[in-house]
Amino acid sequence: DLVSKGNHRHYMLKEIYEQPIVVAQTLRSYLQRMEEQVTLPIPDFDLSAIKRVTIVACGTSFYAGMVAKYWFEQFARVPVDLDVASEFRYRAPVMEEGGLMIVISQSGETADTLAALRHARSEGQKIAAVVNVPTSSMAREADLLLPTHAGPEIGVASTKAFTCQLAVLAALAANLAKAKGRLSEAEEKALVKHLAEAPAALNGALAYDEAIQAMAHVVAAARDVLYLGRGTDYPLALEGALKLKEISYIHAEGYAAGEMKHGPIALIDDAVPVIVIAPSGPLFEKTVSNMQEVQARGGKVILISDYDGIEAAGEGTVATITMPKVHPLIAPLVYAVPVQLLAYHVAVAKGTDVDQPRNLAKSVTVE
Ligand code: G6P
């Protein structure tokens, strides 16, 4: 039963909890587990000839695109241009021959994104669409349809569509890398293995739900909240801030952890919770030193990391959220869960209409 709330109080919570299943469902179309390969629907153009990628989307889908930019550049070494759809069309973007535009949209109907798709087509770009509604306008107009299998998403704030978009985009990045001769068989096998671990890791992340609920009051009492992250955790910081704004109406900003010293640090005092998203790994130490700058100014840090990261970060946080230790490729999917749950529980604590937040629409069909 996909469109009832089941045992959950809100659609949003139900959809957060569906993520292990719908991500597995989505990955099933893109991973050949037996052959240890990543595959896509066959495009009617040559992927290996793609010289440049332009990613365009809105809202949460845009942040999925921002994560994907890191992946396309890292794995396929293809330059990526990224923009929100409402800006893209009006800035005379340069789209040379041999370019691929990727639109990302849950609904497949967002007016700005659809207009960007049509503009790119008129400029001779190939179009790939990562959409959740296979009968949507974007799905119909694309050269390459890459469906997410999230099922109907009812909550206005997007959750499961986001993690399914990430799953598809990771598979696309791997395919592009393969087409470009930049992915060895062994590397491909390893990628398949890591991606296939995502559903279990998402379950592991959900296990922290009650603990997140217990700390929600710290954030619910705040007027302003800051989210910090580096690398692919930077888009997650932006997504965390967006989720919180959307459903709890608390002012929140996402920032690249290293950029904090160039402005937002002026806002830090003991009334500002700072959510730091930092799995242990190569970027960890730098982020922790940014975190310490916050602590030194009395900021209330909530650290989201794995056990090793939380150990290494030491004392001085007001709360920690422990995630399973996962490969960096799937970390953005896994860390999306605590970020969603925190926004959810804060909104519930504030008594807002979680599934139908004021002034927002599920799908925005005007430009
Ligand atoms: C609206 C929704 C967001 C969504 C955005 C993009 O603003 O409230 O949750 O991320 O549209 O929608 P799309 O369907 O294109 O992903």
TrEMBL record:
Q: Which GO terms describe its cellular component?
A: cytosol
Ranges in coiled-coil conformation = none
Active site as annotated: K362 (for fru-6p isomerization activity)
* Keywords, in A-Z order: Aminotransferase, Cytoplasm, Glutamine amidotransferase, Repeat, Transferase
Q: Spell out the subcellular localization from the entry.
A: Cytoplasm
What GO terms are given for molecular function?
carbohydrate derivative binding; glutamine-fructose-6-phosphate transaminase (isomerizing) activity
Domain SIS: where? 42-182, 215-357
Main localization of the protein? cytoplasm
Q: Quick check: keyword Ion transport in the entry?
A: no
Q: Which GO terms describe its biological process?
A: amino sugar biosynthetic process; carbohydrate metabolic process; fructose 6-phosphate metabolic process; protein N-linked glycosylation; UDP-N-acetylglucosamine metabolic process
Q: What class of enzyme is it?
A: transferase
What's its catalytic activity?
A: D-fructose 6-phosphate + L-glutamine = D-glucosamine 6-phosphate + L-glutamate
Q: Please state the Enzyme Commission number of this protein.
A: 2.6.1.16
Its function, per the record, reads: Catalyzes the first step in hexosamine metabolism, converting fructose-6P into glucosamine-6P using glutamine as a nitrogen source.
What does the subunit section of this Swiss-Prot or TrEMBL entry state? Homodimer.
- Name of the protein in question: Glutamine--fructose-6-phosphate aminotransferase [isomerizing]
Gene this protein is translated from: glmS
